[in-house]
Amino acid sequence: MKPFWFAVHGIVHAVRTERNMLIHLVSSLLVVVFAWWLPTTKLENLILFGWVVLVIALELMNTAVERTVDLVTKDIHPLAKQAKDVAAGSVLVAAIGAAITALFIFGPYIIDKFVI
Ligand SMILES: Nc1ncnc2c1ncn2[C@@H]1O[C@H](COP(=O)(O)OP(=O)(O)OP(=O)(O)O)[C@@H](O)[C@H]1O
């Protein structure tokens, strides 16, 4: 059971220390609110859930890369920059994918609600 709590501790640490993680959690909450408010299908909710999980999981990995790089060197190094920037890029790619998916799924329902 210990590895589970170590993992939970890691998640709590990332939420407490990473501003971007807070942004992802607020965005995830917004997705839940919209999915509850709009008549989305089970499949659509499942797709949205997958993106939310992917973005949060990648942000956790990004945090791990940042900590590892900082542990290895405090000096300015091009490889340290590449490692951090590439890891951050993976989060950005997923976040853009999630935003586009959310727009495609929620967009038509919102238009239906407000345009008669
Ligand atoms: N050791 C380093 N050598 C060279 N460039 C670095 C180094 N550390 C950080 N950088 C550059 O500065 C940027 C900001 O680094 P920092 O460690 O503050 O992470 P961050 O991206 O601000 O993470 P967060 O805000 O999520 O904690 C990195 O994306 C990278 O481009």
TrEMBL record:
It is an enzyme of class 2 (transferase). GO terms for molecular function: kinase activity. Keywords: Kinase, Membrane, Transferase, Transmembrane, Transmembrane helix. Its EC number is 2.7.1.-. The chain crosses the membrane at residues 21-39, 45-65, 86-111. Gene3D superfamilies: Diacylglycerol kinase (DAGK) domain. PANTHER family: DIACYLGLYCEROL KINASE (PTHR34299). This is Diacylglycerol kinase family protein. It comes from Exiguobacterium mexicanum.
